[in-house]
Design a protein that fits this description.
disordered N terminus, alpha/beta, Metallo-beta-lactamase, Chain A, eight-stranded mixed sheet, single chain, seven-stranded mixed sheet
């Protein structure tokens, strides 16, 4: 039987170099912390391990190096080689889709639909792609299979990192997601109202808007009113 756990609190952590919003969750394996860095980049800490997701933008000064790096896509707001070098250390595991591994050659490749265990983390690579939006007729900003979203399972909780995507059938079919990170910016992903419609379909317990430069996350929150989904808005552009 899968044990469903309750998220208990959030806080704001202040450091000498910046005020960083930190969301904290209690899992069966202890507290898990999520720190937004900027746009699509954030850090996860749990059990003495550090994960950097899409190290690309923002201020990394003073942050601990990664035991694990997850990269979703090839675009510059999701991977920056100089930042990857800054946050990695000896023994860092890098997981990325095949398109990223052409640049980050030491990455362990995961494809859509694959699952991998790294320490206490179970990682599922899920599709992220555009359904209709692209730079010109017949083209998409993100083709199916090029990038990965990820579902991380830790301490009985499931965290969904959507990456650059629209509300795909695969997203809508997700089950038992505790916390979802959902993008909403045009023209590359989807507007807040469309994101909310997709989120209603798979109904995570908590959803955190991210990757929302140029969009209003409050509009997303409004569109989810009455859904029973807890919307947590943080400043990803501090």
């Amino acid at each position: 039987m899968k044990i469903r756990l309750t998220l208990v609190f959030s806080t704001l952590v202040f450091t000498a170099f910046a005020a960083r919003p930190v969301e904290e969750f209690k899992t069966s394996a202890g507290v898990l912390k999520i720190t937004p860095i900027q746009h699509a980049s954030f850090m996860i800490e749990a059990g003495g391990q550090v994960i950097h997701v899409d190290p690309a933008q923002g201020n990394y000064d003073g942050l601990p190096p990664a035991d694990l790096i997850l990269i979703t896509d090839i675009h510059g707001d999701h991977m920056a080689p100089k930042v990857i070098e800054k946050v990695r250390k000896s023994g860092t595991v890098i997981i990325a889709p095949p398109a990223v591994a052409k640049t980050v050659t030491e990455a362990t490749v995961m494809r859509n639909g694959e699952t991998k265990k790294v320490g206490a983390w179970t990682i599922e690579a899920v599709p992220m792609y555009n359904l209709k939006r692209g730079p010109s007729a017949g083209q998409l900003y993100h083709d199916k299979g090029r990038g990965n979203g990820y579902i991380l399972t830790y301490g009985g909780m499931r965290f969904y990192i959507a990456g650059d995507t629209e509300g795909t059938p695969e997203m809508r079919a997700l089950k038992n997601i505790d916390v979802a990170f959902i993008p909403m910016n045009l023209p590359f992903t989807m507007p807040p109202e469309e994101a909310a419609e997709a989120v209603r379909a798979f109904h995570p317990r908590i959803v955190c808007p991210y990757h929302y430069r140029g969009s209003d996350p409050k509009a997303f929150e409004k569109a989810l009113a009455g859904s029973g989904i807890d919307v947590r808005i943080h400043d990803w552009y501090y």
